[in-house]
Amino acid sequence: MNLADKYGKWAIVTGASSGIGKEFALYLANEKMNLILISRRSKDELAKQLIEKFGIEVITLDIDLSKPENMSVVQKEIENRDIGILINNAGFGKAGDFTNHDIRTYTEMINLNCLAPVYLTDIALEIMLNKKRGAVIFLGSLVAYQPTPYMSVYSATKSFDLTLGLALYGEYKKKGIDILVVNPGPTKTEFHKVAGSDGGFFQREAADVVKTAMKSLGKKPAVLDGIINKILVCAGRFIPVKLSLAITEKIARSIYVKN
Question: Which SUPFAM superfamilies did the record assign (predicted)?
Protein backbone atom coordinates (compact mmCIF):
# COMPACT_ATOMS: atom_id res chain seq x y z
CA MET A 1 0.00 0.00 0.00
CA ASN A 2 1.47 3.34 -1.02
CA LEU A 3 0.98 6.52 0.99
CA ALA A 4 -1.82 7.79 -1.25
CA ASP A 5 -3.85 4.65 -0.53
CA LYS A 6 -3.02 4.72 3.18
CA TYR A 7 -3.61 8.38 3.99
CA GLY A 8 -5.29 10.18 1.09
CA LYS A 9 -4.66 11.53 -2.40
CA TRP A 10 -3.14 14.91 -1.55
CA ALA A 11 -0.10 16.05 0.44
CA ILE A 12 0.86 19.58 1.49
CA VAL A 13 4.54 20.51 1.71
CA THR A 14 5.59 23.91 3.05
CA GLY A 15 9.03 25.32 2.31
CA ALA A 16 8.95 23.15 -0.79
CA SER A 17 11.25 25.04 -3.15
CA SER A 18 14.52 23.51 -1.92
CA GLY A 19 16.28 21.43 0.71
CA ILE A 20 14.28 19.13 2.96
CA GLY A 21 10.94 20.37 1.59
CA LYS A 22 11.95 19.53 -1.98
CA GLU A 23 13.10 16.06 -0.89
CA PHE A 24 9.75 15.47 0.82
CA ALA A 25 7.99 16.48 -2.41
CA LEU A 26 10.06 14.00 -4.43
CA TYR A 27 9.40 11.20 -1.94
CA LEU A 28 5.64 11.81 -1.83
CA ALA A 29 5.39 12.12 -5.61
CA ASN A 30 7.03 8.71 -5.91
CA GLU A 31 4.26 7.44 -3.62
CA LYS A 32 1.68 8.71 -6.16
CA MET A 33 0.44 11.56 -3.99
CA ASN A 34 -0.78 14.77 -5.58
CA LEU A 35 1.01 17.78 -4.12
CA ILE A 36 0.28 21.28 -2.91
CA LEU A 37 3.69 22.97 -2.73
CA ILE A 38 3.92 26.16 -0.66
CA SER A 39 6.84 28.58 -0.40
CA ARG A 40 7.73 32.17 -1.17
CA ARG A 41 9.84 31.30 -4.20
CA SER A 42 8.54 29.92 -7.47
CA LYS A 43 8.30 26.14 -7.70
CA ASP A 44 7.09 25.94 -11.30
CA GLU A 45 10.16 24.06 -12.57
CA LEU A 46 9.94 21.52 -9.74
CA ALA A 47 6.21 21.10 -10.34
CA LYS A 48 6.81 20.49 -14.04
CA GLN A 49 9.40 17.81 -13.28
CA LEU A 50 7.12 16.04 -10.81
CA ILE A 51 4.16 16.05 -13.19
CA GLU A 52 6.22 14.69 -16.08
CA LYS A 53 8.07 12.04 -14.07
CA PHE A 54 5.33 10.76 -11.76
CA GLY A 55 2.08 11.67 -13.56
CA ILE A 56 0.60 13.42 -10.53
CA GLU A 57 -1.25 16.71 -10.02
CA VAL A 58 0.73 19.57 -8.53
CA ILE A 59 -0.55 22.92 -7.25
CA THR A 60 1.94 25.65 -6.36
CA LEU A 61 1.26 28.53 -3.98
CA ASP A 62 3.94 31.23 -4.02
CA ILE A 63 3.05 32.88 -0.72
CA ASP A 64 4.80 33.93 2.47
CA LEU A 65 3.48 31.91 5.41
CA SER A 66 5.03 34.33 7.90
CA LYS A 67 2.19 36.71 6.95
CA PRO A 68 -0.97 35.56 8.82
CA GLU A 69 -3.20 37.20 6.21
CA ASN A 70 -2.00 34.66 3.62
CA MET A 71 -3.40 31.70 5.54
CA SER A 72 -6.86 32.22 4.05
CA VAL A 73 -5.39 31.56 0.59
CA VAL A 74 -4.11 28.18 1.75
CA GLN A 75 -7.36 27.28 3.47
CA LYS A 76 -9.39 28.04 0.36
CA GLU A 77 -7.11 25.81 -1.74
CA ILE A 78 -7.12 22.77 0.52
CA GLU A 79 -10.41 22.66 2.42
CA ASN A 80 -12.26 20.59 -0.21
CA ARG A 81 -9.44 18.17 -1.05
CA ASP A 82 -8.62 14.70 0.28
CA ILE A 83 -5.63 15.86 2.32
CA GLY A 84 -3.66 12.82 3.48
CA ILE A 85 -0.33 14.26 4.66
CA LEU A 86 0.79 17.67 5.88
CA ILE A 87 4.52 18.42 6.03
CA ASN A 88 5.15 21.48 8.24
CA ASN A 89 8.64 22.11 6.92
CA ALA A 90 8.87 25.88 6.29
CA GLY A 91 11.02 27.81 8.73
CA PHE A 92 14.14 29.91 9.15
CA GLY A 93 16.61 30.97 11.81
CA LYS A 94 19.05 33.80 12.42
CA ALA A 95 22.37 33.36 14.18
CA GLY A 96 24.32 35.77 16.36
CA ASP A 97 23.81 37.76 19.54
CA PHE A 98 20.15 38.17 20.46
CA THR A 99 20.30 41.95 19.95
CA ASN A 100 21.78 41.62 16.45
CA HIS A 101 18.34 41.23 14.90
CA ASP A 102 15.28 43.45 15.11
CA ILE A 103 11.87 42.52 16.46
CA ARG A 104 10.41 42.33 12.94
CA THR A 105 12.78 39.48 12.08
CA TYR A 106 11.89 37.62 15.27
CA THR A 107 8.17 38.17 14.67
CA GLU A 108 8.42 36.73 11.17
CA MET A 109 10.40 33.77 12.53
CA ILE A 110 7.81 33.02 15.21
CA ASN A 111 4.96 33.41 12.72
CA LEU A 112 6.56 31.05 10.21
CA ASN A 113 8.04 28.48 12.61
CA CYS A 114 5.17 28.37 15.13
CA LEU A 115 1.96 30.10 14.03
CA ALA A 116 1.88 28.70 10.48
CA PRO A 117 2.14 25.03 11.60
CA VAL A 118 -0.65 25.60 14.14
CA TYR A 119 -2.92 27.13 11.52
CA LEU A 120 -2.21 24.57 8.80
CA THR A 121 -2.46 21.62 11.18
CA ASP A 122 -5.83 22.85 12.42
CA ILE A 123 -7.19 22.97 8.86
CA ALA A 124 -5.67 19.63 7.84
CA LEU A 125 -6.80 17.78 10.96
CA GLU A 126 -10.44 18.71 10.37
CA ILE A 127 -10.23 17.04 6.96
CA MET A 128 -8.32 14.03 8.28
CA LEU A 129 -10.62 13.42 11.23
CA ASN A 130 -13.67 13.32 8.99
CA LYS A 131 -12.16 10.39 7.09
CA LYS A 132 -10.33 8.93 10.13
CA ARG A 133 -6.92 8.81 8.47
CA GLY A 134 -4.02 11.12 7.78
CA ALA A 135 -0.55 12.16 8.90
CA VAL A 136 1.16 15.36 10.04
CA ILE A 137 4.94 15.77 10.15
CA PHE A 138 6.56 18.69 11.97
CA LEU A 139 10.14 19.67 11.23
CA GLY A 140 11.79 20.17 14.59
CA SER A 141 15.52 20.40 15.19
CA LEU A 142 18.35 19.13 17.32
CA VAL A 143 18.17 22.49 19.15
CA ALA A 144 14.59 21.75 20.17
CA TYR A 145 16.10 19.60 22.92
CA GLN A 146 18.67 22.17 24.06
CA PRO A 147 18.34 25.96 24.53
CA THR A 148 21.02 27.26 22.19
CA PRO A 149 22.94 30.52 22.69
CA TYR A 150 23.29 32.61 19.53
CA MET A 151 20.21 30.85 18.13
CA SER A 152 17.97 31.64 21.08
CA VAL A 153 14.69 32.49 19.34
CA TYR A 154 15.09 29.79 16.72
CA SER A 155 15.75 27.09 19.34
CA ALA A 156 12.70 28.32 21.26
CA THR A 157 10.50 28.03 18.16
CA LYS A 158 11.73 24.50 17.52
CA SER A 159 11.02 23.54 21.13
CA PHE A 160 7.49 24.82 20.49
CA ASP A 161 7.17 22.60 17.40
CA LEU A 162 8.45 19.56 19.28
CA THR A 163 6.06 20.09 22.20
CA LEU A 164 3.12 20.75 19.87
CA GLY A 165 3.77 17.64 17.82
CA LEU A 166 4.18 15.39 20.86
CA ALA A 167 1.00 16.72 22.45
CA LEU A 168 -0.99 16.20 19.24
CA TYR A 169 0.39 12.67 18.95
CA GLY A 170 -1.08 11.98 22.38
CA GLU A 171 -4.44 13.43 21.35
CA TYR A 172 -4.86 11.72 18.00
CA LYS A 173 -2.91 8.46 18.07
CA LYS A 174 -6.15 6.50 18.60
CA LYS A 175 -8.10 8.43 15.97
CA GLY A 176 -6.30 7.21 12.86
CA ILE A 177 -3.92 10.17 12.60
CA ASP A 178 -0.15 9.59 12.58
CA ILE A 179 1.82 12.55 13.93
CA LEU A 180 5.61 12.79 13.95
CA VAL A 181 8.25 15.39 14.81
CA VAL A 182 11.49 14.79 12.89
CA ASN A 183 14.50 16.56 14.41
CA PRO A 184 17.55 17.00 12.18
CA GLY A 185 20.88 18.44 13.19
CA PRO A 186 23.11 20.34 10.72
CA THR A 187 21.88 19.51 7.21
CA LYS A 188 23.15 20.54 3.78
CA THR A 189 20.44 23.05 2.87
CA GLU A 190 20.11 26.81 2.38
CA PHE A 191 19.15 27.17 6.05
CA HIS A 192 22.70 27.96 7.16
CA LYS A 193 23.15 30.62 4.47
CA VAL A 194 20.00 32.38 5.68
CA ALA A 195 20.95 31.90 9.33
CA GLY A 196 24.44 33.29 8.77
CA SER A 197 26.46 30.22 9.78
CA ASP A 198 28.61 27.57 8.15
CA GLY A 199 26.62 24.64 9.56
CA GLY A 200 29.58 23.07 11.35
CA PHE A 201 30.75 19.50 10.94
CA PHE A 202 28.82 16.27 10.36
CA GLN A 203 26.17 17.74 8.07
CA ARG A 204 23.57 15.28 6.83
CA GLU A 205 21.89 15.26 3.42
CA ALA A 206 18.31 16.50 3.12
CA ALA A 207 17.29 13.13 1.66
CA ASP A 208 18.60 11.42 4.82
CA VAL A 209 16.22 13.48 6.96
CA VAL A 210 13.25 12.54 4.79
CA LYS A 211 14.15 8.84 4.90
CA THR A 212 14.41 8.99 8.69
CA ALA A 213 11.01 10.68 8.91
CA MET A 214 9.17 8.30 6.61
CA LYS A 215 10.67 5.21 8.29
CA SER A 216 9.42 6.50 11.67
CA LEU A 217 5.98 7.76 10.65
CA GLY A 218 3.27 5.77 12.40
CA LYS A 219 5.79 4.10 14.71
CA LYS A 220 6.86 6.83 17.15
CA PRO A 221 5.99 10.41 18.09
CA ALA A 222 9.44 11.92 17.47
CA VAL A 223 12.76 10.95 15.94
CA LEU A 224 16.26 12.41 15.79
CA ASP A 225 18.03 12.17 12.46
CA GLY A 226 21.57 10.78 12.59
CA ILE A 227 23.44 8.76 15.19
CA ILE A 228 25.68 11.67 16.28
CA ASN A 229 22.64 13.85 17.02
CA LYS A 230 21.09 11.03 19.05
CA ILE A 231 24.27 10.69 21.08
CA LEU A 232 24.40 14.44 21.77
CA VAL A 233 20.82 14.59 23.01
CA CYS A 234 21.20 11.47 25.11
CA ALA A 235 24.40 12.78 26.73
CA GLY A 236 22.78 16.14 27.44
CA ARG A 237 20.15 14.51 29.64
CA PHE A 238 22.78 13.53 32.21
CA ILE A 239 24.53 16.91 32.44
CA PRO A 240 23.46 19.73 34.81
CA VAL A 241 21.77 22.61 33.01
CA LYS A 242 24.47 25.15 33.84
CA LEU A 243 27.23 22.91 32.49
CA SER A 244 25.13 21.95 29.47
CA LEU A 245 24.62 25.62 28.58
CA ALA A 246 28.32 26.36 28.98
CA ILE A 247 29.23 23.56 26.58
CA THR A 248 26.49 24.52 24.13
CA GLU A 249 27.60 28.16 24.20
CA LYS A 250 31.13 27.23 23.15
CA ILE A 251 29.95 24.93 20.36
CA ALA A 252 27.32 27.39 19.13
CA ARG A 253 29.81 30.28 19.16
CA SER A 254 32.16 28.30 16.90
CA ILE A 255 29.35 27.51 14.47
CA TYR A 256 27.09 30.57 14.52
CA VAL A 257 29.21 33.59 15.44
CA LYS A 258 31.43 35.01 12.71
CA ASN A 259 34.84 36.49 13.59
Answer: NAD(P)-binding Rossmann-fold domains (SSF51735)
